[in-house]
Amino acid sequence: MTVETGRPVDHGLFGPESVTWRVHLEPVMWVAGMRALLLQSLHPWVMRGTYQNSALFDPAKAWPRFQRTVEFVGTRTFGSRAEVEIAGARVRRLHHRLRGVDPESGRRFPIDAPEGLLWVHCGEIDSYVDVARRAGIVTVAEADAYVAESVRAAEVIGLDPAVVPASRTELAEYFARMRPRLRVTDEARIAVGGLLAPPVPPGEAPAWTRAAISATATAALATLPRWARRMYGLPGLPTTDLAASALLVGLRRATDLLPDPPAPPEVREARRLVHEARAARGVRGAV
């Protein structure tokens, strides 16, 4: 909370001085969003619960559902505290009603089980911080600050902040513990196929959307950790890492030369405030 002209201003969970705002305003983060979906899909229960309950696998509903997800992340990042709480409560209510079934054991499980929520959160944050580092958006110290700030976002979906990784080291330790539980299920293969050849019906989105999503998903696959690429049957070579990093740097430089993309009012305001904050500190560079 800051004060301008004597009136309190609610910048939500983060604000213009945060690393989170700066990272999430970068267009190259679309690659991170796709990387998160690919990484999250490697948890069998999470993927099956999503497949059994989500409209993302229905071609007639996929694009509106995707848009709602993007809107939630935008509200969580740039909305006021009241807006964040309303959006978070809506998501928590929705998840609390849903159940999944493990076809191998027949066991039913809640979609909002803490293990699943933590996996989804960590897949998202690891993807954002990894792409931000490799694209040259943040320093090592800023990357750790981003992960620490993300604990606030985890609370919005109902996680206990005490169990949420608050540094890149803690994130790495978390993934090392989780790797034995991960694998590519049939549902994950369907999900990846849908990203590479998105089922966007005519009239639901601009004509270029299918090609853009497919290209972004292909780039995201290359940015996955080596062990995750191997699970998907892709090369886990260091050369792939180098090529992916070079691609991210190039994409970021290219987007820096373009006009700011269309955005909701709260994102445009956040962009303005971050520019002002950076200018006040004498920092150059696009946001």
Q: What tags apply to this protein structure?
A:
287 residues; mainly alpha; two-stranded antiparallel ribbon; 4 strands; 4% strand; oxidoreductase activity; ER-bound oxygenase mpaB/mpaB'/Rubber oxygenase catalytic domain-containing protein; MPAB/Lcp_cat_dom
Task: Summarize the structure in words.
- The chain is mainly alpha-helical.
- The protein has one domain.
- Helices cover 62% and strands 4% of the residues.
- It is built from 13 helices and 4 strands.
- It has helices spanning 19-24, 29-40, 44-53, 62-78, 81-97, 114-134, 140-156, 168-178, 186-196, 209-223, 226-231, 238-256, 265-280; strands at residues 2-4, 7-9, 99-101, 108-110.
- It has a two-stranded antiparallel sheet. The chain has a two-stranded antiparallel ribbon with strand order 3-4.
- Strand 3 and strand 4 (108-110) form a beta hairpin.
- Helix 4 crosses helix 5 (81-97) and helix 6 (114-134) runs antiparallel to helix 7 (140-156).
- The chain starts with a strand and ends in a 7-residue tail after the last helix.
